[in-house]
Amino acid sequence: MNVEPMRRRFSRLFIALLASLLCHGAAAQYPSRPIRLLVPITPGGGPDIVARLIAPKLGDTLGQPVVVENRVGGNGNLAGELVARSPADGHVLLLGMDSLLVINPHLYATMPFDPQKDLVPVASLVSNGFFMAVNPSVPAQTFPEFIEYARRANPPLHYGSGGNGSQHHLTMERLKARAGINMIHIPYKGGVPATTATVAGEVPVMMSGTSTAPQIKAGRLRALAFTGPQRSRILPEVPAIAEFYPDFVMIQWYGLFAPSGTPEPVLARLRAEVNKALVLPDVRDKLSNAGGVEPWITTPEEFAAEIRSEYAKYAKLVKDVGAKVD
């Protein structure tokens, strides 16, 4: 009998068993100290609101405080890098937007980390679409009327966005290509300045987040269409673009991420507690009131598949548009 291969096989099995026991032992004691939840934007924005709704719920069920930290810079890259370089033990987490995970890698010539390799998805959190909103002075009253109005405009209409390469920008560029219209992009430094400019009439139209619903309801903007797969719950009278162009769906989402290598039992516990929090009535109501975002609960496989699909979609879209950030 050849004993050496058996010894090697036994050694590998022993190491694997020991690693599994250590992993489960660490997970059983998790969390052992306060958890830091990094948010890539300033306080008050959508991701920050979601983080501050979820954090106390997780803290209650996990038995340790979940402390929200705003780390702004590099269009989310700073916060992403900090989490990616943190110990993989579940005590430093990222509330990441899809723009960071699936758009930034195509916009930046170099990235300080690889979102696909250095971060692992824990759980999906929320999703929503955009309203195509116009200044009330625009004569078009419906989405088809606007498309025809834009098609005939000479010189071409201008549209505002939250910046070059932003989802507002890329979504409108995709609509231009799909509808066969021409409009000129005017980038602003964020969604709020772009909304302010549209309300003031500096630009006639933009793709706006659902947080602009108050301006729409007040008549300062007119929503002509919604980019989600179906109509928005907060403005159900506004048709989805998919009702006219069935292949046109553009959403934005937020998710919870951890450093790659975080033990699966830790990820599973976090995921379970997040999903419990998302179905609480007070959380759902506050999410809706804060900007019309909807809880988005998926399996790990579904979330990973969505990330891969969105990554490929934006790779093509960024290339077609030619958007870059230096």
List the helices and strands and how they pair.
Layout: H1 3-28, E1 35-39, H2 46-62, E2 66-70, H3 77-84, E3 92-97, H4 98-107, H5 115-118, E4 119-134, H6 143-152, E5 157-161, H7 167-179, E6 183-187, H8 191-200, E7 205-209, H9 213-217, E8 222-226, E9 251-259, H10 264-278, H11 281-291, E10 294-295, H12 300-321
Parallel strand pairs: 1-2, 1-3, 5-6, 5-7
Antiparallel strand pairs: 3-9, 4-7, 4-8, 4-9, 4-10
Helix pairs in contact: 1-10, 2-10, 2-11, 4-12
In short:
This protein is 46% helix and 19% strand. With 326 residues, the protein is α/β, with parallel strands linked by helices.
Protein model, in words:
This protein has 326 residues and is α/β, with parallel strands linked by helices. It folds into two domains: 33-127 and 251-321, D-Maltodextrin-Binding Protein, domain 2, CATH 3.40.190.150; 129-243, Periplasmic binding protein-like II (D-Maltodextrin-Binding Protein, domain 2, 3-Layer(aba) Sandwich). Helix content is 46%, strand content 19%. Strands 1, 2, 3, 4, 5, 6, 7, 8, 9 and 10 form a ten-stranded mixed sheet that branches. It is globular and about 75 Å long.
